[in-house]
Amino acid sequence: MTTVKKPARATRTRDTGPRKVSGYMLFAQNMRARVRGDHPTATFSEISRLLGELWRRLPDADKNRYEALAKQDYEKRLAAYKA
Predict the structure, then answer these.
(1) Out of 14, 17, 66, 77, which could bridge 23 as a Cys pair, Cβ 3.0 to 4.6 Å?
(2) Residue 19 in contact with residue 73, Cβ under 8 Å?
(3) How many angstroms separate the Cα of 63 from the Cα of each of 4, 8, 19, 45, 49?
(4) Over the stretch 9-61, which tens digit does the pLDDT of each residue have?
(5) Which residue, among 64, 75, 58, 62, has the nearest Cα to 21 in the 3D structure?
(6) In the 3-class helix/strand/coil scheme, how is the chain assigned residue by residue?
């Protein structure tokens, strides 16, 4: 029986700039401490599930605000990267 080696994974050689962050990720960053305070014994996956439920129940106007903040944040980091 012979074993076949997988080729080594290529490392990133180019600089791709800042990654985009979604509105949900900004929401989760803002709300995680509050959810952990409300549910101190919850596991990471339970907290993530709770954050997802809160996001789904969030009104569209608030979601759009987080999406706009995410876009502004990305544009600011991209400008700093290009400078």
Answers:
(1) 66
(2) no
(3) 49, 41, 20, 22, 17
(4) 766 666 778 889 999 999 999 999 999 999 999 999 999 999 999 999 999 99
(5) 75
(6) CCCCCCCCCCCCCCCCCCCCCCHHHHHHHHHHHHHHHHCCCCCHHHHHHHHHHHHHHCCHHHHHHHHHHHHHHHHHHHHHHHC
Domains present along the chain, CATH in parentheses: 23-82 (1.10.30.10)
Q: Enter the pTM of the model.
A: 0.75
Residue 28 identity (one-letter amino acid): A
The token pair at 61 is 């106007």
